TrEMBL record, chain A:
The keyword Nucleus applies. GO terms for biological process: mRNA processing. Its main location: nucleus. This is mRNA cleavage and polyadenylation specificity factor complex subunit pta1. Residues 326-337 have a biased composition (Low complexity). Residues 297-321 have a biased composition (Basic and acidic residues). Residues 85-306 form the Symplekin/Pta1 N-terminal domain. It is found in: Nucleus. Keywords: mRNA processing, Nucleus. It comes from Paraphaeosphaeria minitans. Residues 415-424 have a biased composition (Acidic residues).
UniProtKB/TrEMBL annotation, chain B:
It catalyses: O-phospho-L-threonyl-[protein] + H2O = L-threonyl-[protein] + phosphate; O-phospho-L-seryl-[protein] + H2O = L-seryl-[protein] + phosphate. Residues 36-50 have a biased composition (Low complexity). Keywords: Hydrolase, mRNA processing, Nucleus, Protein phosphatase. The lineage of its organism: Eukaryota, Fungi, Dikarya, Ascomycota, Pezizomycotina. This is RNA polymerase II subunit A C-terminal domain phosphatase SSU72.
Length: 735, 290
C-alpha cells in the first residue's frame, strides 16, 4: 500500500520538482530507518533519493536543507541493508549530497552532528571501495570523485564567482570542523586512489572506464590537479591488454578502455585549445593520441593480415615466460630513493619519499603559529617510532655519505632556497617581504651567481635568410595596411624622407635598405650569368633582392596608383648606382689598381624588369605610363625600346607614340634615342607607320625620304593595313 | 567503403531497384518484417522475433542514438519499444540531414522543433516519387508513429522529466528522463556521446553504459542492426532483472555463478557473447556518467 503511495509521490514530484521539499516529510518515515520497510520499498527509497538529488530541475540551494534530512536514512541503508540495489542508490545519493552537506557545514560551523553523520557515510563508502562488487564500486568511484572535487581548491576568479562550484576554496582556514589541511590531504589521497585504478587491472574495464569518464570534470574544474591527472593518463597504456590472450571479453575490454581514453583526451584537448591555447600539455596529448592511433592500427593490421595464433600455444600459460603486466603491490618497507648526484638541498636530504604529496607541502603557508602547533602535536604523537627511526637512519647515512664526498669536493654550490613557488596564494604583505629581505641578508653564503641563458643554436645560412625574408615581408604587410594618403602635403626641399610613419616613409626606408645597405658588398662576378633573373638567385644572402622582389610585387599589384612608389624606388636605385660609380672611380684613380670592374648597377635591371612587368597590364588609355616614363631618372635605348614591343599591339600604338612624343618634347637628353626608336617603329611595324610617320615628319624627315618613291604606295598600303588592323581589333574585342 | 560519397552511391544503387509502393500517404504500412536480402555480407542470425521483455516490475531504460535520429536510432527505438523496453532516442548531428534530389542538395532541418509529419509533408510535396523510391517517406511515416520529432542528444537535459513525451512509443519507464543504457549506431556518435557527457560534467552521479553498434546508414542495415540492438538490450535487461532477483542476504554474500554476479560487471561478458553472435556489427562500450 505504501508502495503505491510512494509511486504517487514520485510521479507528483516529476510533474514539478517544487513538490520535493513538501513531499519529504511524508516520504521519509516510510522509507527511513524506523519504517521496517520491505526491501522493495527500501530499493524504491534509495532510487528516489538518488533521483531527487540528481534532478537538474531544482537548485542546489533548495536541495541543501533537504540533504540534511536524509543523512540518517542514507547511513542506515549503507550500514544495515545488504542489498545491491539499495546500496547503489544510496551511494549515488551520497555522492550528490556530499557537496551539499559540505557547503552547509562551511556556512554553519557549529552543526557538528550532521557533518559527523556525513563523515560516517563517507568512511563507510570508502571502506567499500576495494571490496564491494563492481556495480557498487563504480558508484563509489563517482562518490570519491565528488569528494575530490569538494576537497581540492577550485579556481577563484573574482570576476566570475561560481556559486555552484563547491570546492576547498570556500573553506575558511579557521573552521572548527573542517580542517583545511586535512581535507586537502584527503582529497589528494583519494585522487591517487582513483588514478591507481586506471593503472591497475585492465580486465576490469568497468572500473577503468568509469574512472576515466569521471576524470574529465576534474581536469576541467580543478586546474590544481589537472596536471597530475593528465600525467597519470598520459603515462597509461590503454592497450595493455593487447599482450594477454585475445578472448572476446578481452577484446571488448581493450576497445572500451582505448575509446574511453581517447574520448577523455580529445575532450580535454578541445577545451584546452579554446581556453588555454598555450598549455604545453596540448602537444603531449596530441602526441599521445597519435601514438595510440598508430599502435591500434598496427595491431589491427596484424590481426587482419594473419590468422590469430591458436590460443593454447601462447606463452601466456607459462608463468615463467609471461610478461609482468601489473606492478606488484607496493613494498611496505621504506626504501628511500638514492639522492641525485651533485649538490643537494636540505629539503632533498630530508625528503624520504619524493612521490608523497606531503613532500611538496610548504610549511611557510601557515601564518598562525597556533595552527602549526595544532597540527604538529597530534602528528608527532601519532608517529610510528619504528618508522621514525628508519627514516632518521636513512637521513643519517645520506648525511654521512654526503659529508664524505663533500670533504673531497669543493664546497657545495649555493642552494636555491626559493625553489618552491606556490602558484595561487595570497600575495605577501609588505611586512613579510621585509622580513624575508632581512633574513636573506643573514645568509652570507648565498652569492648571486650570474645567470646565463643557454646559448641559442646557431642559425644556418638558410634560416638566416628565411628570418630576414620574414622580417621584410612583415614590413610590407605593414605598408600594405597603411592607407595611401589622399593628398600628400608637399614639404618642399625642407621635408625629410621617412619622417612620419606613413606608407611613404616605409617605402623610402625599404627602398634605401634595398639599395644602400649592402651596396658594394656584392661579389663583382655575381649575376653575370643571368642578369634579369632576380628570382633565380636563390641561396644568396642578399636582403636587397628580397626587398626588391617585394617592392616589385607591391608596385605590380596596382601599378597605376603606385607610380610614385616605383619612381621613388628607381630613383633610389639610380642614385645609389651613381654614388657607387663615383666611389669606384675615385678608388681606382687613387689606387690605380687595374682590373677593378666598375660596380654593376641595379637601376637598369630593375627598371627594365618593372616596365616589362607593367606592360602587359597597360590599357590603351593609361596615361599613367607617360608619367612613369617621364619620371624615370634615366632612359636609354633598351628601356625605350619597350615601346616598340608595346606598339605590336595595334590598340596601344597610340599610347606608344604619345610616350615618345612627350619624351621628345620634355626630355631633351633622350631626344636622339626617341627619334631612333620612332624611326625603327616606322620601319619595322607597319601598323605603327602612320603615327610614327607623323612624328618623323617633324623630327627627322630624311628617314621618310629613305622610302622615297614608294611612299605613296605605302600610304595606300598603310590604309589597308590599318583597316586590317582595325578588323583584327574588332575581332579581338568580340572574342 | 569508408568514403561517405561511395557509401552514398552504394546506398542509391541499393535503393534504386527497391519496389516503389504507391505514393505514400501517412500513415504508411508498418516497416517490412521479412528478412532483408543479405547486404554486404551481413547475414541476420536466426532469432526469435517475438522475444520481448517480461512484464516484471524492473526494466532497464534505453536510449538509442544515431546522427539524425531518423533511420538507425528510430529503427532501433521501434524494435526496443516493441520488445516492451522503455526507450528514448536522439541524434548527435548538428542538424537533421536527409538525402535530397542530389548529393549536393540535402534536405536539412532543425532538431527538436521540426516534427516528422512536417518533414513528411514537405518531402511529399517536393517530389513524392523520388522520396517514395528512396524510402524516405516510408521511413518518415514509420517515425511519426513512434514519436513526434527528432531530438538532439547534446540538447537533452538528463534527469529532466519527459512527461510531455507520453505518447511516444516506449515511453513507459522513461518519465524521469534518465536511462541506464545508451546505444549509438556509429563510432562518431559514440565519441560525441562520451564527449557530451564529459561536458555535462556528470552532475547526476548516475552510471550509464554507453554502447556503440556500428550500423551502416541504409534502410536494410538499419533493420538488421535494430534486431541486433534488440537482442543486446534483451540480454542486458535479463542480467539486470537477475541482479534484482538475487537480493537479500543470499545474494549479498554468496558469490559464484555468472547469474550471481551483478549486472554491471557482466556487461563486458554479455557484449562479448553478443559480438560472437553478431560479428558484422562491430561494437564497443564504456561506462560513463550522467
Amino acid at each position: 500500500m505504501s508502495n503505491t503511495h510512494l509511486e504517487h509521490a514520485r510521479s507528483l514530484a516529476l510533474t514539478d520538482s517544487k513538490y520535493y521539499p513538501s513531499l519529504m516529510p511524508g516520504v521519509l518515515p516510510l522509507i527511513g530507518p524506523n519504517a521496517n520497510a520491505s526491501l522493495e520499498v527500501q530499493r524504491f527509497g534509495a532510487d528516489f533519493l538518488a533521483e531527487m538529488f540528481a534532478s537538474p530541475m531544482w537548485s542546489a540551494e533548495a536541495k541543501q536543507p533537504i540533504a540534511l534530512l536524509v543523512l540518517d536514512t542514507l547511513k542506515y541503508y549503507l550500514d544495515e541493508v545488504h542489498d545491491r540495489g539499495v546500496v547503489k542508490g544510496a551511494v549515488q545519493a551520497a555522492a550528490s549530497v556530499y557537496p551539499l552537506v559540505y557547503r552547509h557545514t562551511i556556512s554553519d560551523p557549529n552543526d557538528k552532528p550532521h557533518w559527523q553523520t556525513m563523515i560516517d557515510i563517507k568512511s563507510n563508502i570508502l571502506n567499500r571501495m576495494n571490496t564491494a562488487s563492481p556495480g557498487i564500486r563504480i558508484c563509489c568511484v563517482k562518490f570519491v570523485q565528488q569528494v575530490v572535487l569538494a576537497q581540492t581548491p577550485g579556481v577563484i576568479d573574482p570576476r566570475r564567482p561560481d556559486h555552484s562550484d563547491v570546492s576547498l576554496a570556500l573553506v575558511p582556514r579557521d573552521h572548527p570542523l573542517l580542517t583545511y589541511v586535512h581535507l586537502e590531504a584527503e582529497g589528494h589521497g583519494l585522487l591517487d586512489r582513483l588514478l591507481d585504478i586506471i593503472h591497475g587491472d585492465h580486465s576490469d574495464a568497468l572500473s577503468v572506464t568509469s574512472v576515466l569518464n569521471s576524470l574529465g570534470v576534474l581536469i576541467h574544474r580543478r586546474p590544481v590537479v589537472a596536471n597530475k591527472v593528465l600525467n597519470s593518463v598520459l603515462n597509461f597504456n590503454p592497450l595493455k591488454l593487447a599482450n594477454s590472450p585475445m578472448t572476446p571479453k578481452n577484446k571488448v575490454n581493450m576497445k572500451a578502455i582505448e575509446r574511453t581514453t581517447r574520448a577523455l583526451l580529445v575532450n580535454t584537448l578541445k577545451r584546452n585549445t579554446t581556453e588555454r591555447p598555450n598549455d604545453p600539455n596540448n602537444g603531449r596529448i596530441q602526441h599521445f593520441l597519435e601514438r595510440m592511433h598508430r599502435m591500434r592500427q598496427d595491431m589491427m593490421e596484424e590481426s587482419s593480415r594473419k590468422r590469430p595464433a591458436p590460443a593454447e600455444r601462447t606463452d601466456g600459460l607459462d608463468p615463467a615466460k609471461r610478461q609482468r603486466l601489473a606492478a606488484g603491490p607496493p613494498t611496505v618497507t621504506t626504501t628511500a630513493p638514492p639522492l641525485s648526484p651533485g649538490p643537494v638541498s636540505y629539503r632533498q636530504l630530508f625528503t624520504i619519499d619524493p612521490e608523497n604529496a606531503a613532500a611538496n607541502f610548504d610549511v611557510k603557508m601557515f601564518q598562525d603559529p597556533a595552527l602549526v602547533q595544532q597540527i604538529l602535536i597530534p602528528i608527532l604523537q601519532s608517529i610510528d617510532e619504528k618508522k621514525l627511526l628508519e627514516a632518521s637512519n636513512v637521513v643519517r647515512s645520506r648525511y654521512l655519505a654526503l659529508s664524505h664526498s663533500m670533504s673531497r669536493q669543493q664546497p657545495p654550490a649555493p642552494v636555491d632556497e626559493d625553489e618552491y613557488e606556490p602558484d595561487d596564494y595570497e600575495p605577501e604583505d609588505a611586512e613579510q617581504v621585509a622580513n624575508r629581505l632581512d633574513s636573506t641578508g643573514d645568509i652570507t653564503h648565498v652569492a648571486p651567481a650570474a645567470f646565463k641563458l643557454p646559448e641559442a643554436p646557431r642559425l644556418s645560412p638558410e634560416e638566416v635568410q628565411q628570418h630576414g625574408a620574414l622580417a621584410v615581408r612583415r614590413t610590407f604587410g605593414l605598408i600594405g595596411e597603411l592607407e595611401e594618403k589622399g593628398k600628400a602635403t608637399k614639404g618642399g626641399f625642407n621635408r625629410l624622407a621617412a619622417s612620419d610613419y606613413g606608407r611613404d616613409a616605409w617605402i623610402t626606408i625599404a627602398a634605401r635598405l634595398a639599395t644602400r645597405a649592402s651596396a658594394g658588398l656584392d661579389d663583382p662576378d655575381d649575376g653575370i650569368k643571368d642578369e634579369y633573373a632576380v628570382k633565380s638567385i636563390k641561396g644568396t644572402l642578399s636582403i636587397g633582392d628580397t626587398i626588391r622582389d617585394l617592392l616589385y610585387d607591391y608596385v605590380i599589384r596596382d601599378w597605376k596608383k603606385r607610380i610614385d612608389v616605383a619612381v621613388s624606388w628607381l630613383n633610389e636605385e639610380w642614385y645609389n648606382d651613381a654614388i657607387l660609380v663615383q666611389a669606384a672611380a675615385a678608388s681606382s684613380a687613387k689606387s690605380s689598381t687595374n682590373g677593378v670592374a666598375p660596380p654593376k648597377g641595379h637601376y637598369h635591371r630593375c627598371a627594365l624588369r618593372l616596365i616589362d612587368g607593367i606592360l602587359p597590364y597597360v590599357a590603351p588609355q593609361d596615361k599613367g605610363l607617360i608619367r612613369l616614363y617621364s619620371e624615370l631618372p634615366t632612359l636609354d635605348y633598351e628601356i625605350l625600346s619597350r615601346m616598340k614591343t608595346m606598339a605590336q599591339d595595334p590598340e596601344r600604338v597610340g599610347l606608344a607614340t604619345q610616350v615618345l612624343q612627350y619624351l621628345h618634347m620634355f626630355r631633351p637628353p633622350v631626344k636622339n634615342v626617341v627619334v631612333q626608336i620612332a624611326a625603327e617603329l616606322w620601319r619595322e611595324n607597319d601598323r605603327a607607320k602612320p603615327k610614327a610617320g607623323q612624328l618623323l615628319k617633324a623630327w627627322r624627315p630624311e628617314v621618310l625620304a629613305e622610302a622615297g618613291g614608294v611612299e605613296v604606295k605605302m600610304e595606300e598600303a598603310d590604309a589597308n593595313v590599318n583597316g586590317n588592323g582595325n578588323a583584327v581589333a574588332e575581332v579581338q574585342a568580340a572574342a | 567503403m569508408s568514403d561517405p560519397r561511395l557509401r552514398a552511391r552504394a546506398h542509391q544503387q541499393q535503393l534504386a531497384p527497391a519496389p516503389a509502393p504507391a505514393p505514400a500517404p501517412p500513415p504508411p504500412p508498418p516497416p517490412p518484417m521479412e528478412p532483408p536480402v543479405a547486404v554486404g555480407g551481413t547475414a541476420a542470425p536466426a532469432q526469435d522475433q517475438a522475444a520481448v521483455a517480461s512484464d516484471s516490475s524492473f526494466k532497464l531504460k534505453f536510449c538509442t542514438v544515431c546522427a539524425s535520429n531518423q533511420n538507425r536510432s528510430m529503427e532501433a527505438h521501434l524494435q526496443l519499444a516493441s520488445a516492451n523496453l522503455p526507450t528514448i532516442s536522439f541524434g548527435t548531428g548538428s542538424l537533421v540531414r536527409l538525402p535530397g534530389p542530389s548529393i549536393t542538395q540535402p534536405n536539412v532541418y532543425k532538431f527538436n522543433s521540426t516534427t516528422y509529419s512536417t518533414i513528411h509533408q514537405e518531402l511529399s510535396n517536393q517530389n513524392t516519387q523520388l522520396y517514395t523510391a528512396n524510402g524516405l517517406l516510408n521511413m518518415l511515416g514509420r517515425n511519426l508513429n513512434i514519436k513526434s520529432y527528432p531530438e538532439r542528444f547534446q540538447d537533452w537535459i538528463p534527469g529532466k522529466p519527459r512527461l510531455e513525451h507520453k505518447d511516444d512509443q516506449g515511453f513507459a519507464g522513461t518519465e524521469s528522463g534518465v536511462v541506464d543504457v545508451v546505444i549509438t549506431c556509429e563510432e562518431r556518435c559514440f565519441d560525441a556521446v562520451l564527449e557530451d557527457l564529459h561536458n555535462k560534467g556528470g552532475r547526476m552521479n548516475r552510471p550509464v553504459h554507453v554502447f556503440n553498434v556500428d550500423i551502416r546508414d541504409n534502410h536494410e542495415e538499419a533493420l538488421v542492426g535494430g534486431r541486433g540492438i534488440r537482442e543486446l538490450a534483451l540480454m542486458l535487461n535479463e542480467a539486470a532483472v537477475q541482479e534484482m532477483e538475487t537480493h537479500g542476504e543470499t545474494g549479498w554474500d554468496s558469490g559464484g555463478g555468472s547469474a550471481r554476479a551483478g549486472f554491471d560487471e557482466r556487461v563486458p561478458d554479455i557484449l562479448a557473447a553478443w559480438q560472437e553472435k553478431w560479428p558484422n556489427l562491430p561494437a564497443t562500450w564504456s561506462l560513463a556518467w550522467f
